[in-house]
Amino acid sequence: MPIHLEIVTAERVVLSDDVDLISAPTRAGRVGILPRHAPLLTILEPGELGIVKDGVRTPFAVSGGFMEVLPTRVTILADTVERADEIDEARAEAARKLAEERKQMAQSERDAAIAEAKLRKELVRLQVARLKNVGRRQ
Amino acid sequence: MASSREIKRRIRSVKNVAQITRAMEMVAASKMRRAQRNVLATRPYADRMRDLIGDLNARVVGQARRGTFLEVRPDTGRVALIVVTPDRGLAGSLTSNVLRRVGRFILEQNQQGRTVDTYAYGKKGRDFLARSGQNLQAEAIKLGDAPKLEQILGVATAALSRAQAGEYSEVYLIYSEFINTLVQRPTLKKLVPVEAPEDSGGRQVDFTYEPDQAEVLDELLPRYVETQIYQAILESIASFYSAQMVAMRNATRNAKDLVRDLTLSYNKARQAAITKEVSEISSGAAALAEM
């Protein structure tokens, strides 16, 4: 019995598919969702969102959002989400550098916090982008 | 009657105007299609969010509502109004309809002894609020045709954090709702306190919340309100291009009617001139013959 997974962002539906396992980075730690999971509502943190279907794990980079788990259906309301092979590593690296500079330059505490969040997001994107090369193992 | 040369010049200039309005109509039509697609694309997210809020609203009662956007707060005598308008004009009565609704809302609130702080998305609304001295607190203009959620967060956060701090007892939103290509309706929505959507909340699922309910509510409710603002902005964009397309189509039609009328006057003037000339020649000839 697969789980029906829907990943949506404010701009579009990213994925709507039946999957076997979802591994998500939540604020309370990483959780793995298998079919018939108890109803759960949780906050996602920036990190790698792994989806296993037919033994193949597809990595996504997620920047935050919410996950609603029902026994046969999971909905991820993501702030932004990208599949690993959609991420351009060079551009992600450039964005990371920019975020780092911003953090150094930040005048106020608020600016620093924003830059810090941005930096974290870019780091995750980079990490996930590198996963695509090994993603087919498992 | 105007001279035929003058009429000819007017015909030429009206034809130029028609060409421009025709081009604008076609540009607006293609942008309208894209904007309508964007509105539809964001619906799944908004719908799922609404379901969640419906569930939460039914489940979260009493003390758990305190300090969240679900709580109905005592009147502080101050409310916030977020106004969404297009950046540009030439879209018929679209902007003025929205702004009229804004004016009425502020008047009603003032009559009840409340002060209204305003926040603007879009240049037209910003100009109106600044010009009429309506406590404009923050603004975002030139967001483009397909803004991303994170682009619009600045103004929303400014208003919401002050509501969270207890400064505003209520937060409202006025925008132009996109019904279809011919109909756009100025709409007033209450954003805070969050009210349960009418058509949801019947699922009765007993969720586990992680890390805990309060934290989930603190994150989810502001995001829900931001989503509603985002949706309003997309609807406003779709409304703008639809209204502009219709306005430009009417303008093109009017210009064509005008060209037809002017061409008729031109032909009449020409005919009159010829008749006059012929009669002058023949009367001249007749005068000569009599000598």
3D architecture notes:
The complex is a heterodimer of chains A (about 140) and B (about 290). Chain A is α+β, with helices and mostly antiparallel strands and about 140 residues long. In chain A, the strands form two sheets. Chain A has a five-stranded mixed beta sheet with strand order 2-1-9-8-5, with no helix packed on it. Chain A has a five-stranded antiparallel beta sheet with strand order 4-3-6-7-10, with helices on one face. In chain A, helix 1 packs antiparallel against helix 2. In chain A, strand 3 and strand 4 form a beta hairpin. Chain A is built from two helices and ten strands, in the order E-E-E-E-E-E-E-E-E-E-H-H. Chain B folds into two domains: about 60 residues, Orthogonal Bundle (Helix Hairpins), CATH 1.10.287.80; about 200 residues, Pyruvate Kinase, Chain: A, domain 1 (3-Layer(aba) Sandwich), CATH 3.40.1380. Chain B contains five helices and six strands. In chain B, strands 3-2-1-4-5 form a five-stranded mixed beta sheet, sandwiched between helices. Chain B is elongated and about 115 Å long. The mean pLDDT of chain B is about 90. Classes of the chains: A alpha+beta (about 140), B alpha/beta (about 290). At the A-B interface, strand 5 and strand 8 of A face helix 1, strand 6 and helix 5 of B.
The global form of chain B is: elongated
Following the backbone from N to C, one meets helices and strands of chain B in this order, namely HEHEHEHEEEH
Q: Please report which band the strand proportion of chain A falls in: under 5%, 5-15%, 15-25%, 25-35%, 35-45% or over 45%.
A: 35-45%
Stated plainly, the CATH topology of the largest domain in chain B is called Pyruvate Kinase, Chain: A, domain 1
Question: Which descriptors apply to this entry?
Answer:
heterodimer, A: 138 residues, alpha+beta, ATP Synthase, domain 1, Single alpha-helices involved in coiled-coils or other helix-helix interfaces, 2 domains, five-stranded mixed beta sheet, 2 helices, 10 strands, 42% strand, globular, B: 291 residues, alpha/beta, Helix Hairpins, Pyruvate Kinase, Chain: A, domain 1, 5 helices, elongated
